[in-house]
C-alpha cells in the first residue's frame, strides 16, 4: 500500500478543507425598497445572522422589488430561485391562502408559537409553498386607509366609500368587496405614480413604510382605527433550509425568533412615532365612530376567514382554534 508523502497529504487536506468547512450562503430578497422601515429591520436581522454565523452561514441580500417584483416572490421562493424572502403573506395568498390567518389573528406571535399555531401554519407553508417559516414580523401594528380628499363618514360613523377609488392589495380584497368599495389591486411600487396622476384617491397600507414611499405627499388624511394585523414574514425555501448544516439552521432560527419578539415589542411604538411625524407635517386624522366603527372592524375580522374558507376549508377549524 502506498502512502501519500507529507507534502502531498497536506496539499490534499488543504484542498478538501474549504469544501468541508464551507460557509452556507443564503440568497435573499425583500419586498420593500431599501430605505423603508420594513427593509431596514430585515437588514438588521441579516446583519445579526451574518455576525453570529461567521464561517458558518451568511445571508447575501440581492435586493428588493427592483430585482423580483412582489407578485412573483412566492413562486420564485417555491421554485428555489431565491432562498429567503421577506414579504407579507398577503402577497402570495394564491400559493398559501392560509397565510391570511396572520392578519386575522387575535393572538401574538409568541402565543401562536406556544399553542402550536405557528407549527401548524409552518407545516401548511411547507406543503403548499415549499417554504420554511422563520418569523412573523411587525405583528403589533395594523393597516389604515389613507385619502387624498377629506373623507366623509356615514350616519352610523363608518367611512363613506362613495367617491373613493382605493388602491388595495390581495390581502384586503375580500374586505373591500364586502363593504362595496371601489378599488384596484396594485403593487406598492406603482402607487406613487397612481396618486400623482389621480388614478386613485385613496390607499390602504400600514403606517410603517408609508412616508418612505412618499405617499404622504398626496394622502393628507388618515382614517382610524387600524384593522387587521400586519403579516410580514421571513421565510426560506424548504429545500435550501434543509440543506443548511444543523449549526447554520440553529443560528438562523434562533435569530429569527429573537427578532420576531423584538419586532413585536418595537413596532407599535414605531408606528405611533411615524404617524405623528406625518401629522406634524400636516396630515389630518379622521376617526370612525360608534356602530359604523364596529361594523367596519367586524367586516375586517370576518373577511379573512371567509376568503380562506372559500379557497381551502380543510384547515380552517384548527386555525380558528389556535389563532382566534
User: How many angstroms separate the termini?
Assistant: 70 Å
**Largest sheet: spatial strand order:** 7-6-8-5-9-11
Task: Tell me the total number of β-strands.
Answer: 11
Task: Choose one word for the global shape.
Answer: globular
Query: Sheet bearing the most strands, described?
Result: 6 strands, mixed
SS element count, helices? 12
Helix content: 40-55%
- Uncertain runs are 1-20
Order of helices and strands: HEHEHEHHHEEEHEHEEEHHEHH
Residue-averaged pLDDT: 92
Structural class: alpha/beta
Give me the oligomer status: single chain
Strand content: 15-25%
Radius of gyration: 22 Å
Brief write-up:
The chain has twelve helices and eleven strands. By secondary structure, it is α/β, with parallel strands linked by helices.
What report would you give on this structure?
The protein is of the alpha/beta class and 324 residues long. Helices cover 45% and strands 19% of the residues. It has twelve helices and eleven strands. The strands form two sheets. A six-stranded mixed beta sheet has the order 7-6-8-5-9-11. Strands 2-1-3-10-4 form a five-stranded mixed beta sheet. Strand 6, helix 7 and strand 7 form a beta-alpha-beta unit. Helix 2 runs antiparallel to helix 10. The longest helix is centred in the C-terminal third of the chain and has 35 residues. The termini are far apart. The N terminus is likely disordered.
Amino acid at each position: 500500500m502506498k502512502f501519500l508523502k507529507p507534502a502531498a497529504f497536506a496539499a490534499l487536506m488543504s484542498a478538501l478543507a474549504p469544501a468541508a468547512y464551507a460557509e452556507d450562503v443564503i440568497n435573499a430578497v425583500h419586498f420593500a425598497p431599501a430605505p423603508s422601515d420594513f427593509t431596514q429591520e430585515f437588514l438588521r436581522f441579516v446583519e445579526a445572522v451574518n455576525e453570529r454565523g461567521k464561517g458558518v452561514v451568511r445571508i447575501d441580500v440581492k435586493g428588493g422589488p427592483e430585482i423580483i417584483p412582489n407578485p412573483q416572490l412566492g413562486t420564485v421562493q417555491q421554485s428555489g430561485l431565491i432562498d429567503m424572502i421577506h414579504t407579507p403573506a398577503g402577497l402570495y395568498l394564491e400559493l398559501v391562502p392560509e397565510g391570511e390567518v396572520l392578519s386575522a389573528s387575535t393572538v401574538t406571535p409568541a402565543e401562536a408559537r406556544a399553542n402550536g399555531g405557528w407549527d401548524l401554519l409552518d407545516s401548511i407553508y411547507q406543503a403548499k409553498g415549499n417554504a420554511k417559516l422563520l418569523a412573523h414580523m411587525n405583528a403589533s401594528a395594523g393597516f389604515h386607509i389613507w385619502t387624498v380628499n377629506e373623507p366623509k363618514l356615514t350616519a352610523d360613523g363608518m367611512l363613506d366609500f362613495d367617491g373613493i377609488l382605493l388602491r388595495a392589495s390581495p390581502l384586503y380584497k375580500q374586505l373591500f368587496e364586502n363593504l362595496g368599495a371601489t378599488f384596484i389591486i396594485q403593487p406598492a411600487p406603482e402607487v406613487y405614480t397612481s396618486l400623482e396622476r389621480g388614478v386613485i384617491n385613496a390607499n390602504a397600507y400600514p403606517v410603517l413604510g408609508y412616508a418612505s414611499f412618499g405617499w404622504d405627499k398626496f394622502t393628507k388624511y388618515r382614517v382610524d382605527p387600524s384593522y387587521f394585523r400586519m403579516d410580514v414574514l421571513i421565510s426560506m425555501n424548504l429545500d435550501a433550509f434543509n440543506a443548511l448544516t444543523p449549526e447554520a439552521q440553529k443560528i438562523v432560527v434562533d435569530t429569527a425568533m429573537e427578532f420576531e419578539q423584538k419586532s413585536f415589542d418595537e413596532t407599535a411604538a414605531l408606528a405611533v412615532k411615524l404617524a405623528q411625524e406625518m401629522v406634524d407635517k400636516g396630515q389630518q386624522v379622521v376617526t370612525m365612530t360608534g356602530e359604523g366603527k364596529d361594523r367596519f372592524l367586524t367586516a375586517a375580522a370576518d373577511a379573512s376567514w371567509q376568503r380562506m374558507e372559500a379557497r381551502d376549508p380543510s384547515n380552517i377549524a384548527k386555525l380558528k382554534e389556535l389563532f382566534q
